[in-house]
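Per reviewer request, we include the raw input and output of the structure prediction for the construct analysed in the revised manuscript.
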Amino acid sequence: MFSARQYFLYPALGIVALSLAPMAQAVERLHQKLEKAPVPLQAAVDAAEQATGGRAYEAELEHNRFNSEYEVNLIAAGALLEVSIDAQTAKVLSVRHKPHKQSP
């Protein structure tokens, strides 16, 4: 015999499971696309360092619905910079100054 909890819980779990399947497929497609990206992380770091004359201390791959890009954080001439590099072409997309974090 089903309780009221089971009556509502089982359909809700089914809806959640169905909504996660397309998300998992999208993540898998994105992962496959990124594995095929022609620009490796080191090439993106090199491009950012060459463009700014700085030294990278952190880099990561960012992706959205339209493209993939590397975000490379650097120190150049005492300033903190964030450089966006196109993951398909290694072209510099933007250079932004990052604010210094103050210690308390």
